[in-house]
Amino acid sequence: MQLKINRKILKSGLKLFHVQVPSDDVTILYGVNAGSILESKSNAGISHLIEHMLFKGTEKRHSRDSIYNEIRLLGEERFCHTSYTNIPLGMRVVLKDFDHTLNLLSDLLFNSTMDSEEVTKEKQVIMDEMRNRADNPYYYIWEEFIMSSFRETPLEKPIIGFPKSVMNLGQEQVSNFYRKIFTPSNCVLIVVGPQPFTKITQKIEKIVNGYPSKKIIYLPKLNFQLIKTKNRTIKRKLDNVHLMAGQVFPKLNFRESIALDIASSALSRSIFNRLVNEDAISYNGWAYYYNMGSFGILSIYATSRKENISKLKIVIQQELSKFSKGQIDSQYIQDAITSKKKAFILKHPSTMDKAKLLLEFYLQGDIDRINLVSQEYDITLPKTVKKISKKYLNPKNLAYVILGNL
């Protein structure tokens, strides 16, 4: 599906992207350049705390209860979280609620009060969230893997922060960070729905231009000379051992990224077949390539009994070694291309799905590439995937994090 993307930079500095599609609903999705990449160890978790605080009250909306009830009355389909580089905030609503929702989201994003008493209470909520995350082995090992892989870079901190850094955040510090970062000039706004571009632009300008324009915050570039692999073993009383291995890449061009994505899908099949079918030592095992815009990550995950941990590592090393030499079953590659193309098409159904994908491609550096993906899958040849695998995949560059009762 080809999307015609309209665009405009408003007087406030807000970057607006719009796609007109036939629909009975509309999605409004903001993206803020924020996250752990802008933080230090001392204020780690401040972006995530502010994400929570967006729903605690504004000058117009005075409590979390009233805000959440307003969201419920709009249908409750919202999207918000904190990542390493961005905080998205959006809703999918019926057409007649467009104006109301735009006003609500803009108010939450640019006019939150960051009340001192509420900041204190919300920090306790985040402590509970930290415990919940620690109880989830996969989520825990993923963050440990990222921190281990990105030592001495802005990503060596968890998105949620450290208990000490979060508890030490004061209201003034939180408020100052919020006022500096959460400004229209530091945001992108994506609208997907049936309304004409001119009509929605006028409404957005009327609302958003009322908020002060400030200096654009540019995300720091990662120094890949500092990124070195590091292995970690974390002891915890669990019935299974969880292993995550991975490799970090500098920014790849579009075609290389697509080819590596296909290779990771074929690698996932190969690893799963070994661990689950042939060797029968794991319930699951997979590989996935994450295009994070300014960098990429190949992540490999598997679980098993602690007696099998050496076998897990051997299988992963063996399979990745084959791929690094270009020794990939061509049928695996062709099947991966077919699967990836269909999965991409299936991500398009709703206006919210389209908006999320548009934001994803914007964060990767080129929003227009959303219209090139299917075509790129069609023209990518097995020999290209093998060539890219030989160029970038290297078992010697794997970093391991192992979690369990070892």
Describe this structure in words.
- This protein has 406 residues and is of the alpha+beta class.
- It folds into 2 domains: 5-208, 2-Layer Sandwich (Cytochrome Bc1 Complex, Chain A, domain 1), CATH 3.30.830; 232-404, Metalloenzyme, LuxS/M16 peptidase-like (Cytochrome Bc1 Complex, Chain A, domain 1), CATH 3.30.830.10.
- Helix content is 44%, strand content 18%.
- The chain is built from 14 helices and 11 strands.
- The strands form 2 sheets. Strands 1-2-6-3-5-4 form a 6-stranded mixed sheet, sandwiched between helices. The protein has a 5-stranded mixed sheet with strand order 7-11-8-10-9, sandwiched between helices.
- β9 and β10 (295-304) form a beta hairpin.
- α9 packs across α10, α9 packs across α11 and α9 packs across α14.
- The protein is globular.
- The model has no long low-confidence stretch (mean pLDDT 93).
The residue fraction in helices comes out at 40-55%
- Helix/sheet category: alpha+beta
Query: Residue ranges: pLDDT <50 for 5 or more in a row?
Result: none
Provide the domain count: 2
What would you report as the Rg, rounded to the nearest angstrom? 22 Å
- The helix/strand order is EEEHHEEHHHHHEHEEHEEHHHHHE
Query: If you consult CATH, what is the topology of the largest domain?
Result: Cytochrome Bc1 Complex, Chain A, domain 1
Shape: globular
- Strand order of the main beta sheet, please? 1-2-6-3-5-4
Mean pLDDT across the residues is 93
Intertermini distance: 49 Å
